[in-house]
Amino acid sequence: MTRLNRRRLTDVALVASLTGAWVTHEAGMVLHSIISLFFAAALAGHIKNNWAVYRSMLRRRTLPGAVDGSIATLMVIVVATGLVFWATAGDYTLGHEPLAIVATVALLAHFWSHRRSLKRLVRSNHTQVAAPNAVATPDRRS
User: Fold this and answer.
1) 126 assigned to some structural domain
2) pLDDT tier, 132 (very low <50, low <70, confident <90, very high otherwise)
3) Cα–Cα distance between 110 and 105 in angstroms, integer?
4) Of 72, 100, 104, 112, whose Cβ has the fewest other Cβ atoms within 10 Å?
5) CA separation, residue 64 to residues 12, 36, 38, 119 (Å)
């Protein structure tokens, strides 16, 4: 799997699991928890795939770097409070829901600061698909 396809797959999984977590929030704690764990895994994959970009922005102390760092911190706190909520069978919410709302709204700033790379990710066509009537040419590097 190419790096571009891995990024696309991770981003789709991230958006789908976040949407699924919001949709199943009222459906029951078990289903919401399972989908939220998929979200946590997809988030870890997203950060891993984009780590070089995030690290350079944090080193340069740019505004997008501060936004990304804040969102990452919020997401970790939301996952941690969700795990506490699940482990205590709902006795301690620790502000899980308001933090999740703030983190989701903060994603708008993340999308805005990375809008150019998101457009390139969606528009790029790096898959080498041959035209239907194309003639295969031999590889001359051998």
Assistant:
1) no
2) very low
3) 9
4) 112
5) 21, 25, 26, 17
Domain limits for position 38: 3-120
Residue with tokens 């698909």: 129
Position 139 in a domain: no
Model-level pTM?
0.68
Token output for 95: 């502000």
Cα 78 to Cα 112: distance, rounded to the nearest angstrom: 22
Q: pLDDT (tens digit, 9 = 90+) per residue, 91-128?
A: 777 788 888 888 888 888 777 777 777 777 677 655 44
Total number of domains constituting the chain: 1
The answer to whether the beta carbons of residues 46 and 14 sit under 8 Å apart is yes
Residue 92: inside a domain: yes
Structure-token match 């936004």, residue found: 67
CA 118 distance to own-chain centroid: 12
| 95 found inside a domain | yes
